[in-house]
Design a protein that fits this description.
5-stranded mixed sheet, single chain, alpha/beta
Length: 323
Amino acid sequence: MGSNYFVRQLIGVVLAFTCTVLSAQEAWPSKPISLIVPFAAGSGTDSVARVIAQKLSERLKQQVVVDNKAGASAQIGAEFVSKAKADGYTLLMTTNTSHSANPSLFKTLRYDPIKDFTPIVRTGDLPFALVVNASSPIKTVKDLIENARANPGKFSYATPNSTSLVSSETIRVMAKIDILGIPYKSSPQALTDLIGGQVQMYVVDFGSGLPSMKAGKVRVLASMAAKRSSILPEVPPMADTLPGFDLISWNGIFGPAALPRPIVERLANEIQALLAEKDVQEKLANIGFEVSPSKSPEEFSKYVSDQLALWSRLIRQANIQPE
């Protein structure tokens, strides 16, 4: 009974533990999942999150609830998820703001965009465009540059997120104009003030700005990406006036660090599948989102690292000082 008995006992314990772990993994999800959005309700990322959350709920047969934790340039929501339990019940849907730009825009962060998260899947891109008030005499980017040069220091732009800020400051540097940034807490608020005439220009995401663009409440001058958008193909890219200009806002889903691999793979596969559905693509296109999912969590992880380096360079070139 000696050694053989203890070996059998050890094997039994190991098998029991393995079965318990597998059973727990197979049971996921057994309760609602929180999808944290670090931006305000009505923002582009929020709109995309709600489409994906609804479809993901159907596929997982468990409710996926969008929870907006806006503020501090997406830091509040990102920090919340970074400290959450890595059990698959707290996820983050975010953008380049929290994971590419913030490390260079702030002297200190209470989260690490690489070490504190598990990349799951990149969902796509949220295009941005430069817009002005519909009643403005400015018709083109060239008009805007000439107007700003004629009124140094008197031309203001709205900046509720990192993409708006970095885009506007890159325009300032490349066009050699003197413009003033006005910070906002949310995209809808910034758009309201542009329409009301409180600011003269705004680099807005299609998610929150597309309805106003289509309704003629704002005039669209240029898109920020080097290629024309499939959603508004008639809008020229900024690079037509400022050669080399190319800036996009990516969107993706993360979990806390050390999220179990089976959960990561299940989520990645389910989200890739729902993003391939025609009705989902149509819904997202209607709110200005361009679907472009990563092929694997590893591909998304590399993309996040590459984008962190790119945005660091863009911010340095625009001479934006960290807060």
